[in-house]
């Protein structure tokens, strides 16, 4: 992930049939903007399903329970923006309201 103390960007690549998150997954302190670069899939946010395709943009607000699934035949490639940062440099989730490391 790249970013500063106010925001963070990360790329996610999900192979066909794989998913990230689950019904209990949520970011306690960051909103997540998910932009689909290529591929197709499904986002499940607070139990509601959203189709994902190239150029889809989805806002997952802090506290929203969410899962991203690749149900297409090719890799699902997304660009994710977190405001404020959601993860430390080594990939651990930041507690709500904590700034990112240097």
User: How many helices?
Assistant: 0
How far apart lie the N and C ends?
13 Å
Care to count the β-strands? 9
Helix content: under 10%
Mean pLDDT: 90
Described by strand count, sense and barrel closure, the largest sheet is:
5 strands, antiparallel
Query: H/E element string?
Result: EEEEEEEEE
Outline type:
globular
Into which percentage range does the β-strand content fall? over 45%
Q: Low-confidence spans: pLDDT under 50, at least 5 residues?
A: none
Please state the CA-atom Rg, rounded to the nearest Å: 13 Å
Q: Strand order of the main beta sheet, please?
A: 1-2-9-4-7
Class per helix and strand makeup: mainly beta
What do these coordinates show?
This protein has 102 residues and is mainly beta. Helix content is 0%, strand content 45%. A five-stranded antiparallel sheet has the order 1-2-9-4-7, with no helix packed on it. A four-stranded antiparallel sheet has the order 3-8-5-6, with no helix packed on it. β1 and β2 form a beta hairpin.
List keywords for this structure.
102 residues; five-stranded antiparallel β-sheet; four-stranded antiparallel β-sheet; 45% strand
In short:
The chain is built from no helices and 9 strands. By secondary structure, it is an all-beta fold. The strands form 2 sheets. A 5-stranded antiparallel β-sheet has the order 1-2-9-4-7, with no helix packed on it.
Write the layout of secondary structure elements.
Layout: E1 2-3, E2 8-14, E3 19-21, E4 31-38, E5 41-45, E6 48-52, E7 57-60, E8 66-69, E9 76-83
Antiparallel strand pairs: 1-2, 2-9, 3-8, 4-7, 4-9, 5-6, 5-8
């Amino acid at each position: 992930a790249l970013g500063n103390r106010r925001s963070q960007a990360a790329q996610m690549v999900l192979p066909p049939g794989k998913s990230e998150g689950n019904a209990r997954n949520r970011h306690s302190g960051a909103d997540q903007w998910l932009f689909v670069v290529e591929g197709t899939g499904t986002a499940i946010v607070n139990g509601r399903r959203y189709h994902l395709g190239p150029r889809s943009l989805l806002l997952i607000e802090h506290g929203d329970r969410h899962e991203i699934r690749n149900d297409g035949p090719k890799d699902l490639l997304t660009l994710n923006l977190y405001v404020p940062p959601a993860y430390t440099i080594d990939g651990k989730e930041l507690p709500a309201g904590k700034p990112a490391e240097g």
